[in-house]
Amino acid sequence: MPQGKSTSRRRFVRSIAPAVVLSAGLLGAGAAYAVPELQLTVPGGTYDGTLETTFASGQTFDLYALFGPNKDTLSDTFYISFALELGADDSPVGTSGSHPALNAGSFKFGGQTYNVTSDLTWGTPSGLPTHGDFPTWYGMLPFQFSSGNQTASIDTQTTTPSSISGGCLSDCLYFTSFAVDTSLLSSAYSIHFDLFDQKTLDGDHPAVNAPFSHDAQSLDGGCTQVPCGPREQVPEPATLALMIAGLAGLVATRRRRR
Question: What are 75-98's pLDDT values in tens digits?
Answer without folding.
Answer: 999 999 999 998 767 766 554 556
